[in-house]
Amino acid sequence: MKFTRLLSLFVSLSAGVWLLNAQGPGGFGAGGGKGKGKAGPPPAIDFSGWWTGNMQEDGAERGAGPDLVDYGGVPINEAARLWALSYDTSRLTSRFHQCDGYVAPYSVRAIGNTRVWEERDPRLQTLIAIHWYSQTFEGHRVFWMDGRPHPPVYAPHTFMGFSTGTFVGNALRVETTHLKQGWLRRNGLPESDQTTLTEFFTRRGEHITYTSVIKDPVFLSEPWIKTTDFYRQPTDPGAWLFPCEDSEQVTGRAPDQVPNYLFGTHPYAEEYAKKNNLTLLGALGGAETLYAEFEAKVTTATPAEARARMLPAPGPSQTSRAVDPDPHDGEIHVLPVRDGVYMLVGDGANIVVQVGDEGAFVVDTGAGQLTDKVLAAIQRLSPKPIQFIANTNFHPAYTGGNEKLKKAGSDPSVVGTFLSLSTPGAGSTASIIAHENVVGRMNGSMGTPATSPESWPIDTYLADRLRRFHNGDSVELFYVPNASTDGDSLVHFRRADVIVAGDVFNTTQYPFIDVANGGSVQGEIDALNAILARTVFQHSGEGGTYIVPGRGYLSDEHEVVEYRDMMAIIRDRVKAMIAGGASLQQVKTAKITADYDTRFGANSGAWTTEKFVEAVYTSLKTPASKKQ
Amino acid sequence: MMRPLVSIFLVLAMPIGAQPPGAGAPKPAAPNARLAAPFDPSGYWVAQITEDWHYRIKPAAKGDVGGIPVNAQGRRAAAAWDPEKDAAASDACKAYGVGGILRMPGRLHIAWEGDNALKMETDSGTQTRTLTFGQPGGQGGDWQGVSVASWDRQAPALSGFTLGNAGGSAPSLKIVTTKAKPGYLARNGVPYGANATFTEYYDVLQVPGGDALLVVTVEVTDPEYLTSSYWYSVHFKKQADAAGWNPRSCSAK
Description:
The complex is a heterodimer of chains A (628) and B (253).
Chain A: H1 2-21, E1 49-53, H2 59-62, H3 78-86, H4 104-107, E2 113-120, E3 127-134, E4 139-144, E5 162-168, E6 171-177, E7 182-185, E8 189-191, E9 196-204, E10 207-215, E11 224-233, H5 271-275, H6 280-283, H7 297-300, H8 303-308, E12 333-338, E13 341-345, E14 351-354, E15 360-363, H9 371-381, E16 386-390, H10 396-399, H11 402-408, H12 418-422, E17 431-435, H13 436-442, E18 459-461, E19 465-470, E20 473-480, E21 488-493, E22 498-502, H14 521-532, E23 546-549, H15 557-579, H16 584-589, H17 597-600, H18 609-621
Parallel strand pairs in A: 4-5, 15-16, 16-17, 17-18, 22-23
Antiparallel strand pairs in A: 1-2, 1-11, 2-3, 3-4, 5-6, 6-9, 7-8, 9-10, 10-11, 12-13, 13-14, 14-15, 19-20, 20-21, 21-22
Helix pairs in contact in A: 14-15, 15-18
Chain B: H1 2-13, H2 33-36, E1 43-47, H3 53-56, H4 72-79, H5 83-88, E2 107-112, E3 117-122, E4 128-133, E5 146-152, E6 172-178, E7 183-186, E8 190-192, E9 197-206, E10 212-221, E11 230-239
Parallel strand pairs in B: 4-5
Antiparallel strand pairs in B: 1-2, 1-11, 2-3, 3-4, 5-6, 6-9, 7-8, 9-10, 10-11
């Protein structure tokens, strides 16, 4: 009996192995191949083990680092070139850049060890994910193999991004989205947060050939394709950590100083080209440098051709190539943030809701076009009525739903107080909180058209901050003067560690500096620094404190830092031109935002690049008086 | 009693690919590599120079060997590179041999030559390689040497109870080239010798919604000038036609 069962087992197993081995070639997936073999998904390839990048190609660039202004072979566009030429490596000494991780496309090619392991369902042994861990900056990538979808556009971005994988032919193909802004090359060549990445991993025994296809609509004019090799390490290299703690590297530097070069003034622009006997045109990169046709130009192009590329080209400004994070589907989308805090997307500016044992605490109320759906979404999160509404500013995209949401709520903390004795109906609606100037802008007393009295804040503060302990969290409103307006607040849920930024910060456009209502570029920069004064990153400059932007995707300090840097750099350029006697028209013609326009620029709509530049110029020429 | 059972199992579990040829199997049909091809590498392909750019877009400075693991003899030879001398000795094509041609800027044209050979032409240096499945003709001694092609399927690690898999399912096009005339691995005179072996793996990868890529991974072994294997990988983008095809002579400089 025992013998018969054993024999059956062996025959079954053997037959199974035979079937596996007898599979024909699966072809090469979607294209290229003729696929003569049996159809069906290709079997999994096991990449588990320790791997090290072969540094025989681009060794200097990937190891010690590239030369400055070595952009050859990268299909960058004008925006990327200008961005990189403005980059002063001293920027790395800024507290907020010291620990920046590498983005996934760069991380895979970086020097250091890599460990790969599989994550399998403990019961079914199906492949859930492949983990790719790089020593440098402890970059931990997860390739989800279980068919899960990518997150929505308004979800957070990370240095590693969100990756899904599938086996195609003899390769593992990985698709990555939701990357942070980072480097294409470690000399300032930028990679934008709009980048998507396709990778192929092909294993041959102890060797992996890695092919990456980087698509960046903001900074590349065509996909940047690279191949790299890995070889397997027979033993654990034993070096896996890369801790980082930021500190003061340059003392005395003001928080709004961001090292940068004005256009056309990079002091080392020609160093690499001269060292390698190349024309500067070649060193400045671009799609043409990838192809054989450039061989002739690499030694013959004139300095004038190169110089022309170191300044913005004349003509109309470029516009944003970023994906719009608003679904525009007439629905309200709810994104859980942390510890009872949620971000609601879909009705103008982002709305934040905090829920708990007490009534909901709502920050901003959207444009008021979908308020019924906003209310329904809040009621799904908490059965309790809305108790507090905070407004980060008075703009209609942030206060449009005030009246309806207020009426749908109640504030039991007012009922039974002296206020309720003197004010009939007090506590029967939610209480709206804001800086005093928000009321002034909404009730018409400060020169703006009045809105419905039911939409006005009733609980205001004049300076510094307003505090409230609610739903088990310490909630603070901080006043940031003369930023987008003269009444902006940041709202910080301290336990959840979520900061709501309002119009001070967004991921979709240049900041709306409403000069007519007290906004200014310096106040905007100071407000961004006020956010950064409260953030703590979790790891390698990312995670930790979440920032909800006025518009766009849920962020952390990295997005705020890049935005702050941009604002400080643009301010410096305009300041320098004003110091040289430039008129507003001359500043506009100089296209001083050319390196940011493919990410944030607009030539139509309510907030154009031209209006933004005008706001920067005007607020620098006539600094706003601080109204408190 | 258990021992014979284990033996039976092991025999049954042996991968088909590991069975010796013949052994009662029907006589195989005449080989036809073209029919067996899991993908078709033929067509026009344009090189994209995105790695080692300043070594590839033009010759780097004399003596700069980059990441090539040359030994002392190789380093000396690279330091003695003299392009004028090469040109005078009709050796202008030394960087266009099998060891360097795939890293040159330019285009490839690959076509089937019958059922068992591929012809690869380059516009850069107007080189021609014949990649023969089975027994190659020619004696070598020229820039491109003698190339043997095969469809290379990595043996999956599926034997016994192990269900892991060390290789892929679909084969690469594998080319092993020997007997090439000594030439340069890089345009600035980094040498390879007559006994160098070049093992190339060709894969075609389809980018979703994008290009078809020909990715070539190369291992160079050279007892004369290298301390260890030199690995590199290059890629080419598929072209719809011969656009940009620009035959030009070898240049020593």
